[in-house]
Amino acid sequence: MAQIPGCSALLLVIVLLGPFPAFTQRESRHDKFLRQHVDFPKTNSELDARRYCNLMMQKRGMTTTFCKPSNTFIHASHSDVDAICSDGGTYYSENYYDSNRPVALTACRIVGGSSQNPPCSYRGRVSSQYVRVACLNGEPVHFKTTL
């Protein structure tokens, strides 16, 4: 059996492990916030609120092992949502900021109790309201409430 020269073996290891860090990287808090709470432009606006919630909760990974009891989707651009933590929002307290203007929302709530396992069933409510978010390093990381 032929030996692989040291340089070639090292190159082989680098090639094989090259994509590995991508699999181990965790989703940032801001990226998780965007995945869970921002849908712009709104996905398939032809759907009624119930069907929209059932689709989006599954599509965004909030029904894989258990049913997330509630979630609110903001129908504004990433930059408009991010701006709540700066000139598009007003400081409230601690790390919370309130939006300076109402935003289009779809609020999803589980049907039948909060401890359900998949398949999950949601009801939805569409509105336009002010929102409060928690900010970290100038970016939203947690949806607190509507106002």
TrEMBL record:
Q: Name one Pfam family in it.
A: RnaseA
Cellular compartments per GO CC: extracellular region
Classification via PROSITE patterns: RNASE_PANCREATIC
Q: InterPro entries attached here? A: RNaseA, RNaseA-like_dom_sf, RNaseA_AS, RNaseA_domain
Q: Where does this protein chiefly localize?
A: secreted
Where is the protein situated, by its record's location annotation? Secreted
Signal peptide annotation: 1-24
Q: Which UniProt keywords are listed? A: Disulfide bond, Endonuclease, Hydrolase, Nuclease, Secreted, Signal
| Domain Ribonuclease A-domain, chain residue ranges per copy | 26-147
GO MF terms listed in the record are:
endonuclease activity; hydrolase activity; nucleic acid binding; RNA nuclease activity
- Biological process annotations from GO: defense response to Gram-positive bacterium
Q: Tell me the domain of life.
A: Eukaryota
Q: Which CDD domains match?
A: RNase_A_canonical
PANTHER family in the cross-refs: ANGIOGENIN-RELATED, RIBONUCLEASE
Q: Can you name this protein?
A: Ribonuclease-like
User: What does the organism's lineage look like at the top?
Assistant: Eukaryota, Metazoa, Chordata, Craniata, Vertebrata
